[in-house]
Automatic annotation (TrEMBL):
<feature type="transmembrane region" description="Helical">
    <location>
        <begin position="49"/>
        <end position="69"/>
    </location>
</feature>
<protein>
    <submittedName>
        <fullName>DoxX family membrane protein</fullName>
    </submittedName>
</protein>
<dbReference type="InterPro" id="IPR051907">
    <property type="entry name" value="DoxX-like_oxidoreductase"/>
</dbReference>
<dbReference type="InterPro" id="IPR032808">
    <property type="entry name" value="DoxX"/>
</dbReference>
<dbReference type="GO" id="GO:0005886">
    <property type="term" value="C:plasma membrane"/>
</dbReference>
<keyword id="KW-0472">Membrane</keyword>
<feature type="transmembrane region" description="Helical">
    <location>
        <begin position="76"/>
        <end position="93"/>
    </location>
</feature>
<keyword id="KW-1133">Transmembrane helix</keyword>
<keyword id="KW-1003">Cell membrane</keyword>
<dbReference type="Pfam" id="PF07681">
    <property type="entry name" value="DoxX"/>
</dbReference>
<comment type="similarity">
    <text>Belongs to the DoxX family.</text>
</comment>
<feature type="transmembrane region" description="Helical">
    <location>
        <begin position="9"/>
        <end position="29"/>
    </location>
</feature>
<feature type="transmembrane region" description="Helical">
    <location>
        <begin position="113"/>
        <end position="131"/>
    </location>
</feature>
<keyword id="KW-0812">Transmembrane</keyword>
Amino acid sequence: MRNPFQNDALGKFILRLTVGTLILLHGVFKMLNPGSLEFISKQLAGFNLPAVLAYGVYVGEVIAPLMIILGIFSRLGGLLVFGNMIFALVLAHRSQLFSLTSNGGWALELQGFYLFSGLAILFLGSGKMAIRPD
């Protein structure tokens, strides 16, 4: 008899919806608050990188999550989220990399969640419940 709780397609779908929706909210916030882009531009300038790279946040936090949610080139979407989080960790959170909160959790739990979830989606793909299953 088949285990009703063993459903890889449903598990991948839930992962895609969770990661995609949660990171998309960050992207929508940045679209509605242009000051966020200025902050990213300043962070990039600190590394002698061109300010135009700040627009990459829209790729990593709007386009990639939509790809993941819909299941259109989800692996590429996962890679873009992973890359976006590498930039976020280096530019804005490097001082917290080895920090814990007062409750003992990693100070970068949310960023770590997005980083490794993007990586998981890269390796897992979209599954069967997608516009373009892989």
